[in-house]
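RECORD TYPE: protein structure
NAME: histidine kinase
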Amino acid sequence: MGLLLIPGLRQEIAMVKQHQQDLQQSLQTYQDLLDFAPVGYLQVDEENQLLWCNQEAQKILYLHWQPEQVRLLLELVRSYELDHLIEQTRDLQKPQTGEWIFHPSRDDAAEMATIKSLALRASSLPLPNGQVGVFLENRQPLLDINQVRDRYFSDLAHELRTPLTSIRLVAETLQTRLEAPLNRWVNRLMQEVDRLINLVQSWLDLTQMEANPNMQLQAKAVELRSLITSVWETLEPLAVRQHLSLSYSGPENLWIKADQARIYQVFLNLLDNSIKYSLPSTSIHIEAKILSTKDNDVASPIIEINLIDSGVGFSEVDLPHVFERFYRGDKARTHSLQDGKSIGAIVGNGLGLAIVEQIILAHGGSIKAMNHPETGGAWMQLQFREVMANFLSQDYS
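PREDICTED:
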């Protein structure tokens, strides 16, 4: 009986061996794919010892590693951000992402002079038995390209300012010497030249803000309610054409420490957009309130400003990109006159909201774009943390 079982047992053993070989071949195939992948990959055990890394990871991290080596990752790569990301992934048992500037370290001072810091992005995932896998992306080439692009555009903008100013001076001269109907062409020329001048200046402003996030601010006590009123008075002639009104709710005395000219520019851009995209005979509403947060167990006030219109709002595709430079919303972002005739897409330079975001960030605040669930229009939510507490008219604690 036992002899009859031996052939079947041998066949099972052969099948197991074949299955093992197939698995080994698959493992080797996946390892080869990872080894030649354009992104870095490394894997550590439950004690953060490096088990394996591909060629790209070795290149990104300036890592000299041999497969037979068993060493702590932190001994091979002096990146506490990477180490923290791995620990966080293991503790939470959830994929994590992180971005940081990696500064490679070398014992040889001469070699250090040739190594540059890199902007890295990492995505980690928990693996069985406490192991963690990490994909690494070197974002430095992309940042370098963006910097070169910005420098070229800035140089071009500087070069354009002088000829545009000269063209405008010529147009102004012609404007006073030509009579109707010829002067309407000069008026059209003036409008287009002014639009180009504004575009060039906006680009220069934005480039300067992004290059220097901690821009020099002329900070002082600014009362937001009166500043918003002043902005609306400037834009009111545009609002009257569309029969638009402005309503306000919230405290009257809201003081922040800010650069008044810059914050004026913020509300000028936001209200100008609301006027452009609002439907006729509707209202733009501004709601202000004071929020209380705890900072080291100390009450810290935040002023929140919600600007809501009754226009067409943002499409879901546009929302993640509205603060990007030169991003233009889809063709659905149009509105109609009272007789129902479409006036077509609103023309803008695509830099207004990008500038607004940079100014808000420079003030330590935040801005968020949404669609309001009731009006269906655009909803811009601003928060300011540099609140002048001594001027608040109510208890925020």
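COMMENT: The chain has ten helices and 14 strands.
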